[in-house]
Design brief:
Length: about 270
Amino acid sequence: MKLISWNIDSLNAALTSDSARAKLSQDVLQTLVAEDADIIAIQETKLSAKGPTKKHLEVLEELFPGYENTWRSSQEPARKGYAGTMFLYKKELTPTISFPEIGAPSTMDLEGRIITLEFDKFFVTQVYTPNAGDGLKRLEERQVWDVKYAEYLAELDKKKPVIYTGDLNVAHEEIDLKNPATNHKNPGFSDEERAAMTKLLGSGFSDTFRELYPDTQKFSWWSYRMKARERNVGWRIDYFLVSERLLANVQDALIFDETEGSDHCPVGLNINL
């Protein structure tokens, strides 16, 4: 089975705009088409509360004719057109779909951040993890989120093994970003966020890319500022984690860092299930 995850930074723009950046996003979508993944997870769709429009669905059907989709958007009182997630999955797959709420603080449970697909022998869950904010102003809320989401994953893992993907908004180790020394107080590399990731991995989950490529430095996110992409000043904050008992089934973990359709690039997983 092949899975791909991508923070698209506006599905609407990618599907309907003719801007230069949207055209780059469209090129990435063509890459995803060519990859012929069984499941595609998309974060930061930024769709309205009503989800994809008729036009969006027509374009998706044209691009991915053999796929079903399911989506979750931000709902009031959370911000409009914010966050949001979507799965595309091949029509022969018949998952049970859920939209969990985890008891997260503020409006986080209403921001369309989590979708879970349940199959006979495993779960696939995706997340768009809340950012800790400039100056770590949302760090306390982020810490609560990390605890609540880890508890949710543990409950899934008790039932059957889990594939967990998405934009986790944390670079776990120093190898996972270009400039660790200057980022210890910044969101995504604070001691608290990294410790939460360490704890999660210690609870029975494996970071597939790092397990397969322990010494390889590749990134999945680059700031739009300071020509970061051009200089490859990036962070690896997009992941595929698996329950440890699935690790032996992993065939490859991929980072499509040659693509430029968002501030993120897609990541992938090939796994024998």
